[in-house]
């Protein structure tokens, strides 16, 4: 199981091949994936990058 540092919401979209995701803990953090697993994987690395960007820009 992949552990995430922040909460993650995954939602189905109108397109059957895509899911949307976001974290209510990280303002502006969103993404899409082809499956729930894809969303979780992308979110894990995206959260790290997002937090680093916030730290760099203040």
UniProtKB/TrEMBL annotation:
<protein>
    <recommendedName>
        <fullName>HicB-like antitoxin of toxin-antitoxin system domain-containing protein</fullName>
    </recommendedName>
</protein>
<dbReference type="InterPro" id="IPR035069">
    <property type="entry name" value="TTHA1013/TTHA0281-like"/>
</dbReference>
């Amino acid at each position: 199981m992949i552990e995430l540092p922040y909460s993650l919401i995954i939602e189905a979209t109108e397109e059957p091949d895509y899911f949307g995701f976001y974290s209510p803990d990280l303002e502006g953090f969103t993404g899409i994936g082809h499956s729930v697993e894809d969303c979780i994987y992308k979110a894990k690395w995206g959260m790290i990058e997002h937090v680093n960007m916030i730290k760099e820009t203040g």
